[in-house]
Amino acid sequence: MIRKLATRRETLLLGALLLLLAVIATRFPGFVAPSNLADVFNDTAPLILLAIGQMVVILTRCIDLSVAANLALTGMVVAMLNVAVPGLPVAVTLAVALGLGAALGMVNGLLVWKLDIPPIVVTLGTMTIFRGTIFVISGGDWVNSHEMGEGFKAFPRAELLGLPMLSWIAILALAVFSLVMTRTTLGRAFYAVGGNPHAATYTGIDVGRTQFWAFTLSGTLAGLTGYLWVSRYAVAYVDIAGGFELDVVAACVIGGISIMGGVGTVWGALLGALFLGVIKNALPVVNISPFWQLAISGSAIIIAVAVNARAGRDKGRIILKSAEHAT
Amino acid sequence: MTTLHDTAPGRQIPDRLQSPLQRRLKSWETLLLLVAIGIFVANSFASPYFLNAWNLSDATFNFTEKAMIAFAMALLIISGEIDLSVAAIIALASTAMGAAMTAGAATPMILLVGIGTGLACGAFNGVLVTRFGLPSIVVTIGTMSLFRGISYIVLGDQAFRGYPSDFAFFGQGYVFWVISFELVLFAVLAVIYAVVLHLTNFGRAVYAIGNNATGAEFSGIRVARVKFILFLLTGLMSGIAAICLTSRLGSTRPSIAFGWELEVVTMVVLGGVNILGGSGSIPGVVIAAFVMGLVTFGLGLLNVPGIVMSIVIGALLIGVIALPRLWSKWRAA
Questions:
Q1: Exposure on the CB side of residue A102, measured as CA atoms within 13 A
Q2: Model pLDDT for residues A50-72, shown as the tens digit of each residue
Q3: Shortest CA distance from B125: residue in chain A
């Protein structure tokens, strides 16, 4: 049991994350103060939410490059809705964000499921279409802080037991998705489809439909994050979260989620996102120019994928050995 | 007649092979060419400024640099790999050229630095993919951040300016009347890539690898070496595109060519290259380049903002792939 835990990617990654924090602490001890770590978690919450959704999609051998555009479009729609109907309750806004995000995700899912178009092509296309749509509905204008209602902006900052709502939503999503992935048939289906689509078909799992649900979940989380993002930064415009889809994929890759499908956990996605979040927040503190961030996260991705590929190979050999011993 | 093949729609084996002419008429390239002609005609009716030699010449700059990369990317995608770091290679190559220029290098040296950087980046990708056996989509997402990241480290919020005046020829020069140097380079490269892919053993090997890498290996093709060469070529093309773009803009910022990787991939897929590898052609990519250039330029003349054009490009990408599939589904039903 302990050995199994020690060889898990997640454990390895947790070790790397703690090491990173330790190195930062030697330069700037204040960084590892609980209150600051909570701030880092809160700042990383959007990335965590999207990484969870992306993980589900990648598990099924797909990829969703439209998450950031979905986020931006949903964010713009709820922001404009808030301007048009000032007193709208937050619950309605949340429902609109979740619903619209899910609908956009379903568009991806349907194209992949019903028309069998490769996911990278579908989401590349919808990514540009979603971004363009933001421009069309907003006319290129910004929705600024003073136009948004107080309740709209206050929600992600509202504190509960010392943590802002944004953090709580990320924690809630982590809990729900770890349950779904490990304790439900749908969760099993995601792994089965990615692990071996042919075998999944023979066991009665509809591969296309499972991928459709993966895209829907990813879209729902992106829509939710869209509202949280816009209300947290109190601004909505065409280019918000531009290029963020690649950060999300990067978080998944660092989190040990295999791009070949079938391998990965919610905790891996969390740790991958936190790894990037810690680097982003630590650079200014330890006096490294923020311009270094891109190169560092790029190196982290390459190292992570190299380490994971190696770990995957070792694991295969170990399985063979234990099988030999068993017979 | 009921055969086993009838159960799989779209996979029927005909009694008789289609004649070459019929096959050509029904090909992807023909369809795309019709789309291109349609857009051209629609554009010339929509705007009085469209049918003007100089305007059309300007329009070619919308796609020449991207298309150069798309040729190499097409080969790479046919072989079953992908390179998402091409735009970042442009940024790094441009930064290296700027640094060389600041150090007092003359134009030939600047060109060498640009091409060298492109080759080095391509080799780096190639080694990671072929030597370490890592999935190219992840590797190049990583190197995309790394290469552009190095540009940001070097330049920050600064820019390199003041390239020598003879350097301007590569992006702004004209060979003859309205025919720009870039357009000539584009045409020459198109011919070279078409010959390499369609008429040489190397091109055959690229298709073989994309269809069945294991089978190719067993039939004596050095799969890893071919793939390495393809990454090298993609790096080289990005280096050449970096020279043209830097020369055209006359300056280098780390955000140069941002987001181009997705436009290049769109161009390749629109050109009929199967994103899963194994099929595609250079003429298709050439026509796709013209389609994208014409759409961008035509809408630009109508004062449609660039971001709205991206809707059209995105819809085109999904539409041209979805329509034939919808059609065959509808016929099968």
A1: 8
A2: 999 999 999 999 999 899 999 99
A3: A302
